[in-house]
Write a structure and sequence with these properties.
Layout (H helix, E strand, L loop, with lengths): L5 E6 L3 H13 L4 E4 L2 H7 L5 E6 L8 H10 L4
Parallel strand pairs: 1-2, 1-3
Protein name: Response regulator
Keywords: Phosphoprotein
InterPro entries: CheY-like_superfamily, Sig_transdc_resp-reg_receiver
Length: about 80
């Protein structure tokens, strides 16, 4: 994946949800990147990532809302 390629970033601790959303979006030609936790996303995050996030609100560790707060603090746009 190139950094400027837009993708849907799916962040959910439930593998079934991740895979189901991935299948749904890819059937209409929308590429996805899957992450099993907010921390997994943050480890791979860089400011060149493009696209949108679909984030589970309630996850072990960093919640979806906490991830949103961290991205705001990082001035992610």
């Amino acid at each position: 994946m190139t950094n400027n390629e837009q993708r849907i970033h799916i962040i959910d601790d439930d593998e079934g949800i991740r895979q189901g959303l991935n299948l749904l979006f890819e059937t209409v030609g929308l590429p996805c990147q899957l992450y099993h936790s907010a921390n997994d996303f943050l480890v791979q995050y860089n400011s060149d990532l493009r696209g949108c996030l679909i984030v589970d609100i309630r996850m072990p560790g960093i919640s979806g809302l906490e991830l949103q707060e961290k991205l705001i603090e990082m001035e992610s746009t």
